[in-house]
Write a structure and sequence with these properties.
The protein has 341 residues and is an alpha+beta fold. The chain has 2 domains: 86 residues, no CATH class; 235 residues, Bira Bifunctional Protein, Domain 2 (BirA Bifunctional Protein, domain 2, 2-Layer Sandwich). 40% of the residues lie in helices and 21% in strands. The strands form 2 sheets. A 7-stranded mixed sheet has the order 1-5-6-10-9-8-7, sandwiched between helices. Helix 2 runs antiparallel to helix 4 and helix 5 packs across helix 10. The structure holds phenylalanine. The site of phenylalanine (PHE) has 11 residues, from strand 9 and strand 10. Its cofactor is Mg(2+). It comes from Marivirga sericea. One of its GO terms (biological process) is phenylalanyl-tRNA aminoacylation. It is an enzyme of class 6 (ligase).
């Protein structure tokens, strides 16, 4: 028996580990539960009772020796690793090789719009992207089976026609009006979804910022002044603005707002289709039915609302001619917006 132990001691003291694999080999052989030492301990029961004490001490000594050696081998490996690393030359004159991300143009425009409206007291609200029919349509005065629902091609959930991906963030306005008391000055930015064929000019998802203002005595003049202010802040003080009558079920009267083409300054170019004007948003006085649907007295309160697509505004601002670029994550495109960061 003592021969076996002496042989083991010799083997342990001669062990080396130049690689992680060799170290692991050592660990398996001498340290792990299934190691030779484990076997020696298991043999204890075959030793005559009067010899057991001496046997136990001898095996424990080997165990200690094995563990100390293991620590030595680990330390040896670590220092040789560190040695090889520190011997690699470091050129301190090289510029740092970090490729930082940039602000996405849509994030930039979103932040700008929010900032401009926050200056005049608007706050920001959030709502779910998966909506029910009531918040996306019915409360917004879209009559059931009315063709106005077709204005926005909708993704419905097959098993439940009451649930859809929101087609606009007007749904958030309903949620805010339902749950809080007027007055309101609120923006609702977010992602919206429409079942459209993907092309340079349309996508099945895009981003909107909608906003609404409800208080006593709010009139069309407030709507116009607010949106004038916004257009000039975003596109420059020399921007001209015009309103064209339009139709939305939830506003009456409704208007679309154009700005003088910021690219050709109104002279005519292919962005504005040589008209000198580009449309940037829809707006109108909130239909009294919508206020009543949210439990707000439409005799006491009036309001206006507006909504715009962030992609479209960013297209005009940065002259992007294909909507798909925004969501393809091509760094050649994204790197062009480095100056915004
Ligand atoms: N919700 C409309 C849309 O998505 C935009 C809009 C909002 C128009 C508010 C008028 C008033 O097209």
């Amino acid at each position: 028996m003592s021969e076996k132990i002496n042989a083991l001691k010799a083997e342990i003291s001669a062990a080396t580990a130049k690689t992680q694999e060799e170290l692991e080999g050592y660990r398996l052989k001498f340290i792990s539960r299934k190691s030779v030492l484990g076997e020696l301990f298991a043999d204890m029961k075959n030793v005559a009772p009067e010899d057991r004490k001496a046997y136990g001490q001898a095996v424990n000594e080997v165990k200690q020796q094995a563990e100390e050696k293991f620590k030595e081998l680990i330390a040896g490996l670590e220092s040789s690793d560190a040695g090889s690393k520190s011997s690699a030359p470091i050129d301190l004159t090289l510029p740092p090789n970090v490729n930082l991300g940039t602000v996405h143009p849509l994030t930039y425009i979103h932040n700008r719009i929010v900032e401009i409206f926050q200056k005049i007291g608007f706050n920001v609200a959030d709502g779910p992207e998966i909506e029910d029919d009531f918040h996306n349509f019915t409360a917004l005065n879209f009559p059931e089976n009315h063709p106005a629902r077709e204005m926005q091609d909708t993704f419905f959930i097959e098993s439940n026609p009451d649930i859809a991906l929101r087609t606009h963030t007007s749904s958030v306005q309903i949620r805010v009006m339902e749950n809080q008391k007027p007055p309101f000055r609120t923006l609702a930015p977010g992602r919206v979804f429409r079942n459209e064929a993907i092309s340079a000019r349309a996508h099945c998802f895009f981003h909107q910022v909608e906003g609404f203002f409800v208080d006593k005595n709010v009139g069309l003049v407030d709507l116009k002044q607010t949106l004038y202010y916004f257009a000039k802040e975003l596109f420059g003080q020399d921007t001209k603005v015009r309103f064209r009558p339009s139709y939305f079920p939830f506003t009456e009267p409704s208007a679309e707002m154009d700005i003088s083409c910021n690219i050709c300054k109104g002279k005519g170019c292919n962005i504005c289709k040589y008209s000198g004007w580009v449309e940037i948003l829809g707006s109108g006085m909130i239909d009294p039915n919508v206020l009543e649907n949210c439990g707000i007295d439409s005799e006491e309160y009036t309001g206006f609302a507006f909504g715009m697509g962030i992609e479209r505004i960013a297209m005009l601002k940065f002259q992007v001619n294909d909507l798909r670029l925004y969501s393809e994550n091509d760094v050649r495109f994204l790197n062009q917006f480095k100056h915004l960061s």
